[in-house]
Amino acid sequence: MNAVVAGLGLAAKHGRLLLILGLLAGALLPGLAQAMKPWLRELVALLLFLAALRVGPGRLAGSLQRTLPAVLTVLIYQLVLPLLAVGIAHAAGIATTPAALAMVLVLSAASIAGSPNLAILSGADPAPAFRLLIVGTALLPLTVIPVFHLMPALGRGAEVLLPAARLLMVIAVAALAAFALRKTVFVNPGPVRMAALDGASALAMAVVVVGLMSAIGPALRTAPDVLLGWLALAFAVNIGGQVLAAFALRRCGVGRDLPSLAIVAGNRNIALFLIALPPAVTDQVLMFIGCYQIPMYTTPLLLSGFYRRMALS
C-alpha cells in the first residue's frame, strides 16, 4: 500500500508530463485511442469522483453558499459570450462556416468535467471550478436556447436537455460516493494522501485524453494543413479565453479563486454536443474537438506560472 501511495505521489509531481504523454499517445497510437473511446464516460465519472474526493463535502458545501456569483459567472460564460460570438459571425457573414459553429458551440458549453482536476494540476483551488461545473451544467439547457435560436444551423436548444440531465446525474452520483468515502475511510487526509490523490487524478486525465484524441492521428497523416488551422483556432479559443478571463476577473477584484474560474472560461465541454446534436452539425467540428484537447490538457504546463502571478498580483 505504501508503494502505491508513493507511486501516486510521484505521478502528482510529474502530472503535467503525464498529460503530455497522454496527448502524444492519443495522436501517435490511433489503435489505442480507438480502444479507449468506449470507456470515456466511465473515465469522466472517475475524474468527477476524484475531484469530489479532493474537495470534500465541507469545502463544497461552503463553496455552494456562493451560488449567486457562480450563476452570474456562468451567465457571462455560457450566454453573453456565445451571443456576442453569434452577433459577430452574422455581421461578418460567416455564421454557417464550420469555424463559426465551433466557436459558438464551445462558448455555449458548460465546464469540462475535468476542470477541477486541471485546477489541481495548475496549483489552484479546485472548489470554484467544481462549483461552476455544477451550476453551469444545471443551467446549460436554459442558456443554449437563445444561442441556438439565433444560429439555426445548430438545431434546437432543447436537444441538450437529456445529455445535460445525464451529466448532472453522473456528477451527483460521483460526488455522493466520494463524500461517503471521505466520511468513512478517507477522513482528514494528510499531505501524503492528498498528493497520492492528485497523482491518481493526473493518471486518470492522461488516460482520458488518449481516447479524446482519436480523430487527430488520421488527420496528422492525411491533412496536416487542415489540422494546423483547427489547432490554431483551438489554442486561440482555449488559451486566449483563459488569459482574457484572468485579466477581466482581476479587474473585478477576484483574488484566490481567479485561476480556477479562468480555467473554466477556456475549458468547455463541447464534446457534450456530440450526443445532443445531429451528425450533420457535429461532423463539421469533429476536428476542432480533437484539436481542442491539446490546449486543454497543456493548460497546467502553459499557464500555471501565469495563474500563480495573477493570483498574487
From TrEMBL:
<keyword id="KW-1133">Transmembrane helix</keyword>
<feature type="transmembrane region" description="Helical">
    <location>
        <begin position="226"/>
        <end position="249"/>
    </location>
</feature>
<feature type="transmembrane region" description="Helical">
    <location>
        <begin position="160"/>
        <end position="181"/>
    </location>
</feature>
<feature type="transmembrane region" description="Helical">
    <location>
        <begin position="261"/>
        <end position="281"/>
    </location>
</feature>
<dbReference type="InterPro" id="IPR038770">
    <property type="entry name" value="Na+/solute_symporter_sf"/>
</dbReference>
<feature type="transmembrane region" description="Helical">
    <location>
        <begin position="202"/>
        <end position="220"/>
    </location>
</feature>
<protein>
    <recommendedName>
        <fullName>Bile acid:sodium symporter</fullName>
    </recommendedName>
</protein>
<feature type="transmembrane region" description="Helical">
    <location>
        <begin position="99"/>
        <end position="120"/>
    </location>
</feature>
<feature type="transmembrane region" description="Helical">
    <location>
        <begin position="287"/>
        <end position="307"/>
    </location>
</feature>
<keyword id="KW-0812">Transmembrane</keyword>
<feature type="transmembrane region" description="Helical">
    <location>
        <begin position="43"/>
        <end position="62"/>
    </location>
</feature>
<feature type="transmembrane region" description="Helical">
    <location>
        <begin position="132"/>
        <end position="154"/>
    </location>
</feature>
<keyword id="KW-0472">Membrane</keyword>
<feature type="transmembrane region" description="Helical">
    <location>
        <begin position="74"/>
        <end position="93"/>
    </location>
</feature>
